[in-house]
Amino acid sequence: MKLVDLRKVAVRQQLRIRFQISNGLECVVDQHGVAHVPALRGIPDFNLERELESISQFVLEPAVADPKNPAPWRSLTRDQLAAMTDSSHVAAAADHEEE
Fold it and tell me: Which of 8, 22, 34, 68 has the most CB atoms lying inside 10 A of its own CB?
């Protein structure tokens, strides 16, 4: 699973995907497919693609939330999220074949 896979899932399903990187910071891939580390205050000394290789737990939350009825977030393992990325590849391929 690569960062581009997380970006595709986040955009297609309008999610924010969060995960902790090794230095204790949190990375967020938003509903626009942008990966950012909110607490980062300078040039990073790490590579997100490499950090992603060691991540085992992810938190998914809906990007569009109703303040009166907040949607629940869910925690997924690497395998569960990888299955989501695989199924989105299949769905994208099916959509492309129909065109």
Answer: 8
> What is the total count of domains within the chain?
1
Say yes or no to pLDDT of 11 above 50. yes
Confidence of residue 84 (pLDDT cuts 50, 70, 90): confident
CB distance 60 to 73 below 8 Å? yes
Distance in angstroms (rounded) separating the CA atoms of residues 81 and 21: 16
Structural domain span for residue 35: 3-98
DSSP reduced 3-state for 35: strand
Backbone dihedral angles phi then psi of residue 27, each to the nearest 5 degrees: -105, 140
